[in-house]
Amino acid sequence: MLGVRGDVINSIFYVIVIAALIMAGCSSEEESLELHQQQLFTFGTLVDISLVTDDPEQAQLAIDMVSAEFDRLHTDWHPWQDGALGQVNKQLSSLEFFSTSPSVISLLQQSNLLSEKSAGLFNPAIGKLIKLWQFDQLENEQFQFTMPSAEAVQSLLQQKPQMQDIVINNDTMQIKSNNPAVSLDFGAFAKGVAIERVIKILKANKIQNALINAGGDLKVIGTKNERPWRIGIKNPDQAQNPSAPAVIAAIKLHSDESLFTSGNYERFFEFQGKHYHHIIDPRTGYPGRGTRSVTVLTKDAGLADAASTALFIAGPEQWPEIARKMGIEYVMLISTDDRIYLSPAMAERIELLTDVEPEIIR
Ligand code: ADP
Ligand code: MG
Question: Which CATH number fits the domain that encloses residue 145?
Fold first, then answer.
């Protein structure tokens, strides 16, 4: 069974839930300010754009710019299609210097730092491992998943692909890899960086109140009718049990805050009764164990994206240490044994909509 399954249907449902949550709280005082919403299909997901402004023309112009930027970056940063990063991945194994685009170099530099801070748990250099798990085939309905051989996984692990293997020459805009096992996959980061960029575009175009929501990964600026944007966090139970509540918690976001969730229900294969999801532990080469979802709140959307993935891999034991290293204060982790762990800062802000008693970890 393929895991993108009802993904689009789920996303639509989720967007409706989020929309319902953010709509609650409209006041009649600011009638000139209107909510403009549009959905785009980009970055492999439905992206919901909500702008609050009194100028419908400006809103449409901004939405068009955002849409064009998302599409451009998705092409540029796609690991195996024919954009800038796809070209990079074809040339890396030569171990020679070659030219690439400034947008790829910027992604490399930022993720190099984050990979180090996450103790290598966020590791975009494991593109070959991700391919071995066939996540490039998830959208292909004819495709039959097969377990990667333990030998193939071990052989890649032994070659230790990591971001530090990439050498960047800023003067010539050239890069090279020192390790033939490196292939780049920014699936855990690119969406965040793209959201950060489109928020900048919105601000530059005088949009002060907005929510950009890519299937539950999101950033807000300003307010929604002078009240904070209130966001629902997806209940991991919903993926298996459609009658379970859609959201497990809600949180009010201040301007410039991002909220990102990595879940084991987002992209997966089911094979011989087992669930193989898309977040790979770079230490084992296998899907990370022990976590169902991690939600991270921080200002920078790129950091939020990378950190939600790293903390997912870190799991119920190690997440506080990695969160500290990455400078993340707000975390919720739901484990595979259904415990809810919160950082103290998150515990102060989140509204849990479940009977499960959370554990606050200092
Ligand atoms: P989503 O894309 O569902 O929001 P994530 O942000 O956690 O989820 O990103 C998962 C994607 O990142 C995978 O589909 C894969 O492309 C890539 N990836 C998987 N494991 C890792 C890892 N340990 N480090 C960096 N990238 C990863
Ligand atoms: Mg991520």
Answer: 1.10.3980.10
